[in-house]
Structure formats: structure tokens, C-alpha cells
């Protein structure tokens, strides 16, 4: 049974996050998805980010709405970019263009430790109406909504 890792801050849970999470469950099939959620301590953002507790609650609510049984996933706190993927056995890691370099680093470290590399599943950005990627930063600036629709200027 595949063991799949995906991680992020998951602020606003926008359509880009949804695509990553959906891909993780698709790849896992009958296996399990481990979602690393960035801890408050690890955050280094230029905009305010809600607490780990709030982001975790929203993430769990989103997955529940997807209809995924609780035994098919686990949400863990990420205190560093690699999380448990260095030491634990995983088969796949789901990444965006932003997190792809972290997956390469994880595989380099795993190989040095004699562990098999993770299969990297690359998921392209979801574009907003203006052709620029949806991001939590853009949402917090009021440029777009969670679905990439441009906000009307007042």
C-alpha cells in the first residue's frame, strides 16, 4: 500500500492546495496520505498566517468534505521542511513548483542514508484568471479569491 507525503502551510486552502491534496489521495489509492502542516514556529511569510490550530482544523474539515475515511490520512506538524520524509519510509512525495527543490533535497539526504528515493509527483500551479499562479500571498493581498477569480477594485 503506497505511503504518500504532501506538505504545506495550507493558508486559505485555495484551489492549488486542493489539487495537491487530491493528487496525493489519487496516488495513494488504497494506501495512506501523510500531510505535513507547517508549524507556527517554522513560518516565514510576508503576510499574516493563521495559527496551526486553525489551519489544521480547516484542513481536516476540507478532507472530511472530500469523503476520505480517517484511516486513509494523517496530519502531522512540520517543524522543518523535510518532516518525517528523511527517516520514515514513504513511496511518493507530492510537490508544487515551489516545493520541488525540497523534494530533491529530501531524496539526496535519503540516498546518503541508504534509503530509497521518493518518487516525486510534480503538480503544476493552478492559474488564476490572469494567468498568474494562485497563492496565499495573492489572496492575502486581496488580488484574487481562493479560486483565482480576480477581485474587483473598489
Detailed description of the structure:
The protein is 31% helix and 18% strand. The chain has a single domain, classed as 3-Layer(aba) Sandwich (Rossmann fold), CATH 3.40.50. The protein is an alpha/beta fold. The longest helix has 15 residues, at 52-66. The chain is built from 4 helices and 5 strands; from the N terminus they run E-H-E-H-E-E-H-E-H. The model has no long low-confidence stretch (mean pLDDT 94). It has a 5-stranded parallel β-sheet, with helices on both faces. It is globular. The termini are far apart. One of its GO terms (molecular function) is pantetheine-phosphate adenylyltransferase activity. It catalyses: (R)-4'-phosphopantetheine + ATP + H(+) = 3'-dephospho-CoA + diphosphate. Its EC number is 2.7.7.3.
Structural class: alpha/beta
Name the helicity range. 25-40%
Number of strands: 5
In terms of DSSP E residues, the strand content is 15-25%
CATH superfamily grouping: HUPs
Any idea what the CATH architecture is? 3-Layer(aba) Sandwich
Mean pLDDT: 94
Q: Identify low-pLDDT runs.
A: none
Largest sheet: 5 strands, parallel
Order of helices and strands: EHEHEEHEH
CATH topology: Rossmann fold
What's the number of helices? 4
> How many structurally independent domains?
1
Organism: Methanosarcina mazei (strain ATCC BAA-159 / DSM 3647 / Goe1 / Go1 / JCM 11833 / OCM 88) (Methanosarcina frisia)
Pfam family, one: CTP_transf_like
Subcellular location: Cytoplasm
EC number: 2.7.7.3
Amino acid at each position: 500500500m503506497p505511503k504518500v507525503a504532501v506538505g504545506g502551510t495550507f493558508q486559505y486552502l485555495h484551489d492549488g492546495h486542493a489539487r495537491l491534496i487530491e493528487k496525493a489521495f489519487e496516488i495513494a489509492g488504497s494506501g495512506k496520505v501523510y500531510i505535513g502542516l507547517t508549524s507556527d514556529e517554522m513560518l516565514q511569510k510576508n503576510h499574516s498566517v493563521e495559527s496551526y490550530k486553525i489551519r489544521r482544523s480547516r484542513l481536516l474539515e476540507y478532507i472530511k468534505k472530500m469523503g476520505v475515511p480517517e484511516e486513509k490520512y494523517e496530519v502531522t506538524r512540520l517543524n522543518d521542511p523535510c518532516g518525517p520524509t528523511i527517516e520514515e519510509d514513504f513511496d511518493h512525495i507530492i510537490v508544487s513548483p515551489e516545493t520541488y527543490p525540497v523534494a530533491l533535497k529530501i531524496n539526496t539526504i535519503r540516498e546518503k542514508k541508504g534509503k530509497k528515493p521518493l518518487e516525486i509527483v510534480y503538480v503544476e500551479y493552478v492559474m488564476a484568471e490572469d494567468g498568474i499562479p494562485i497563492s496565499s500571498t495573492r489572496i492575502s493581498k486581496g488580488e484574487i479569491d481562493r479560486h483565482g477569480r480576480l477581485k474587483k477594485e473598489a
